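Input record (one chain):
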Amino acid sequence: IWVWIHLLQANVSNQTYSAHEDVINKPWRPLPSGRMTADEARRFRWFLLVVCLCLSAWHGAGVLLASTGLSLVEIFHDDFGFSSDPVLKNLCNVGGYLTFESGAILILSSKTSVDHTSLVALLSSGLLIFTTIHAQDFADADGDRLSGRRTLPIVAPEGSRLYMLTALPVWSIVLSALWDLGPMCGTLFLVMGLFVGSQYFRFRDVQHDQSSYLLYNVSPDVI
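The corresponding structure, as predicted from the sequence alone:
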């Protein structure tokens, strides 16, 4: 429940400021489809923030800190325009993922702080997200360009795809070694990284970029 309610908060927060680009990228969302107004979405967003903080406080100080951190990340990303800069956007994505993960870890473990293994997992996750999360921006390039955002696929359309082709296999090797997956699982993980990277490089249309991003999200989960 904690993860889902915070995910809802993050999605509503993001969508309150992206309706103009969602007309192109995601017209089925509530705002561009006319099922909700921007004012209604903003009021719902702040209501959800209070709900998330109260729910987190019930789980303890560590979870409350994670929830507060996520809320701050959303404010910087959405209200202060960090989403318009490729580096700041990646930093916000790292903050978002880490606060989600740390809060979930604390709830599942019933501990007040993360252990060494969890800390290593969080740090490696943060580095992975920071260096590859622009995978989500390829399919949204048209809408992002309309809104004036400078994402990596817009700034370097060819270089960003070549980067994905190389970065995902490299991360597969690094994570396989870090978690000592063994030759069979390590090879499978490397093949997945090569496949997803090649999908980004070979296919350049929105439909393929959407399916590639889905594969990007699934492939690290095998660890």
